[in-house]
């Protein structure tokens, strides 16, 4: 079993559109890998995504939205949560991806990622094979079941404005975008203490 929750309507369609426009227009650069800030760009075989620098106002409003969801997530996962990390505003073009990885809370790595308990992704546009304007194909966020169990992969349904959250130690990936542009916001809730 993979423990995740989907919360619809964290942003409405107009807010998603505004955020996509801001991310598309903002300056930015290749998103990195935690623990290897010296590698810029990150290994191109591991992660290919643009990270945009949005306005402080936009960032503050998204932190507000994430904070408003904290109690729901605490209840779902049965974990006390504290602050969320500075959100990342991500823009995937055709061919962009992120290989299977874990975001944190794994005993093998002793860096800032050890404080992460819950990963959250907000989808800003629709994944669809019909190639209509503003949609993308490929680019699935896929969660992997624990490797000790049966071979389990679950692709999340990207609906604009919905938030998907999962335990940060859950292996997950973003498959290559095959058409259009994919926009997401990601952040991580830390544990208490
Ligand atoms: O863009 C996504 O759907 C997820 C990105 C991700 O896994 C990450 O930033 O760690
Ligand atoms: Fe991740």
UniProtKB/TrEMBL annotation:
PROSITE patterns noted in UniProt: FE2OG_OXY
Ranges for domain Fe2OG dioxygenase: 80-191
InterPro entries assigned to the protein according to its UniProt record, in alphabetical order: Oxoglu/Fe-dep_dioxygenase_dom (IPR005123), Pro_4_hyd_alph (IPR006620), Pro_4_hyd_alph_FE2OG_OXY (IPR044862)
Sorted UniProt keywords: Dioxygenase, Iron, Metal-binding, Oxidoreductase, Vitamin C
Names of the cofactor(s): L-ascorbate
Coiled-coil regions listed in the entry: none
Stored Pfam families: 2OG-FeII_Oxy_3
GO molecular function, one term: L-ascorbic acid binding
Domain of life where this protein originates: Bacteria
Protein's name according to its UniProt entry: Fe2OG dioxygenase domain-containing protein
Species classification: Bacteria, Pseudomonadati, Pseudomonadota, Alphaproteobacteria, Hyphomicrobiales
């Amino acid at each position: 079993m993979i423990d995740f929750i989907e919360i619809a309507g964290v942003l409405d369609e107009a807010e998603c559109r505004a955020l996509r426009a801001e991310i598309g227009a903002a300056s930015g650069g290749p998103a990195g890998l935690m623990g290897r800030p010296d590698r810029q760009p990150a290994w191109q075989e591991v992660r290919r995504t643009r990270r945009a620098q949005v306005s402080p106002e936009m960032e503050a409003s998204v932190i507000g939205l994430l904070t408003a969801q904290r109690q729901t997530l605490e209840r779902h996962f049965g974990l006390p949560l504290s602050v969320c990390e500075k959100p990342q505003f991500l823009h995937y073009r055709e061919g962009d991806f992120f290989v299977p990885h874990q975001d944190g809370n794994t005993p093998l790595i002793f860096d800032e990622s050890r404080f992460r308990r819950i990963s959250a992704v907000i989808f800003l546009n629709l994944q669809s094979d019909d190639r209509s304007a503003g949609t993308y194909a490929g680019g699935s966020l896929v969660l992997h079941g624990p490797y000790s169990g049966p071979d389990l992969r679950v692709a999340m349904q990207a609906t604009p404005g919905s938030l998907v959250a999962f335990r940060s130690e859950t292996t997950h990936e973003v498959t290559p975008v095959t058409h259009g542009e994919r926009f997401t916001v990601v952040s991580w809730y830390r544990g208490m203490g």
